[in-house]
Every structure is written in structure tokens, then in C-alpha cells.
Amino acid sequence: MAAYFIAQYQVKDPGLYQEYSAGAGPTLAAHGAELVAFDVAAETIEGTSPGAQTVIIKFESTEKAKAWYNSEDYQAVVGKRLAATEGYAVISQSMNVGG
User: Fold this and answer.
1) What are phi and psi of 48, to 5 degrees?
2) Distances (CA, A) of 62 to 58, 69, 88
3) How far apart are CA 69 and CA 74, in angstroms?
4) At the top level of CATH, which class does the domain 3-93 belong to?
5) Domain map of the chain by residue range?
């Protein structure tokens, strides 16, 4: 079942975020991921968003998404995103009605 890494955040340090992006991009292909959406001005229609930047990345499964996130190559750069932004990220399955 497909799984999605979904992050929404506000970029507080654009320079550091650019460094993150340059390092994170190549890790996606290495893990069979597909960038579905990258929107720097997503519109919030309910609730309170941490920021307008939204990223959605598709993986073959939750296991593949977690393998990418926990991989040595991604872990080498994710700290830059965490330091440069304020927000959250989740992994969500395409259809999970069983909990």
C-alpha cells in the first residue's frame, strides 16, 4: 500500500533550508520515492497551519518511507531541515481504515 511523507512548515532560515534541499533531493531517487507536491504557498482552509510550505512524497509502502527517513543518507541532512523550519511531518498510508 502506498504511503506518503507529508511535511508542512514555515522556513525560518532560507540559506540552511537550501542546503537541506540540495542534500535531500538525491536521497529520494535512491529510495524509489516520487515528489508529488512542493508548494511554498499552500492555502490553509481549516485549523492553524505551522506554515504555508507543504511537501508530499510518495513511497511504495510505509516500510519504504521509514527506510528512507531513517537511512544514513537522509539522516545526514534532515537536521538542517529541522533547524531551518518550524512545523511537522507525518507518514500516512493511502488507505488505512483499520488503525
Assistant:
1) -120, 120
2) 10, 10, 17
3) 6
4) alpha beta
5) 3-93
